[in-house]
Specification:
By secondary structure, this protein is α+β, with helices and mostly antiparallel strands. The protein contains three helices and four strands. The protein is elongated, with a radius of gyration of 22 Å.
Length: about 140
């Protein structure tokens, strides 16, 4: 595998983790929202990753491939339904609906995505240093 491929692979990894960080931030920012119906309530979202299939099929055996974001899916976990007839958004039965966002889980996702992003940056930096040293060897 060429060192130039390392930049592409770590770049797709950084891009994927950036999507993951943004999705997690959206989940955390909506964790405490309230609505009057289950249809209007925010649902936690999560990105779906995959190895780039077309690249993997055309790659030589043993060659690494990048990451692709296939999409973002909504969680199917049940929403939180709370009896609070005094709330201005309560439905006719006195219930309000809260998102199915687990704040602890989202914080763990944020830490993991941040560390994965940082690792991809370090990989790209190491490849840059190796290429630079290789070029300097040819000058001497």
């Amino acid at each position: 595998m060429s060192l130039y491929n390392v930049f592409n692979i770590s770049g797709t990894g950084m891009s994927a983790q950036s999507v993951r960080l943004n999705t997690t931030a959206s989940n955390l920012s909506n964790a405490n929202t309230v609505s009057s119906s289950s249809e209007q309530t925010y649902r936690a979202r999560h990105p779906v990753f995959s190895a780039e299939l077309s690249t993997a099929l055309n790659a030589q055996q043993g060659e690494a491939v990048g990451v692709k974001v296939l999409g973002i899916v909504e969680s199917d976990k049940p929403l939180k339904r709370e009896f609070n007839p005094e709330h201005p958004l309560a439905d006719k039965d006195g219930f309000i609906y809260k998102p199915n966002v687990n704040v602890v889980e989202e914080m763990a996702n944020m830490i993991s995505a941040s560390r994965n992003y940082q690792t991809n940056v370090q990989v790209a930096d190491a490849a840059k240093q190796m290429l630079s040293r290789t070029l300097r060897m040819g000058q001497g």
